[in-house]
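Researcher: Batch entry, complex prediction.
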Amino acid sequence: QQQVKQSPQSLIVQKGGISIINCAYENTAFDYFPWYQQFPGKGPALLIAIRPDVSEKKEGRFTISFNKSAKQFSLHIMDSQPGDSATYFCAASREGGGADGLTFGKGTHLIIQP
Amino acid sequence: DTGVSQNPRHKITKRGQNVTFRCDPISEHNRLYWYRQTLGQGPEFLTYFQNEAQLEKSRLLSDRFSAERPKGSFSTLEIQRTEQGDSAMYLCASSVQANTEAFFGQGTRLTVV
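Model: Structure tokens for the complex:
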């Protein structure tokens, strides 16, 4: 059972545009939702994270929108740049010791065209 | 401290051999996690430690997989009698405590031939 569903699988955006990646989760016990960026051959790097007590969090060009009732959250990359081309993963974890670690989506391969 | 360090970065081994990977977490991070990532997929949780205690290991892929974290510092992940299906990227992450920011290392790419 896939607990975090991510879409789209791939995305092409023009330079300067807005990239939007969506995730939906099933486990209502999840209460921590990070986004990771991964370049080929590298480990995932934490971009931004949110908890359910807020509906939006912004850091620089990156914004997370969170909808608790719909069990959905999304990443918006404003003014997308070619250097943003990478694979992005949403993830979720729960309180109570984090025994499951992070549950990841399958990833979105983002290409920013110059 | 420059982050989570993993060694080796790449490992090629013959089927049936044993391999061991090392992870050095960020200093003072009590939690250490191991994940496996196959091509085109997100990381898959394997096991984790709180200091030296391994608190979850039921998600290890088989009894050929084992992990240790002696003295609560670095950790090792061992795979015995490797199979071609074990070929993947093995990632280590650490965090200060549960359910907080987890930082990943660069991973060890294992190829079983």
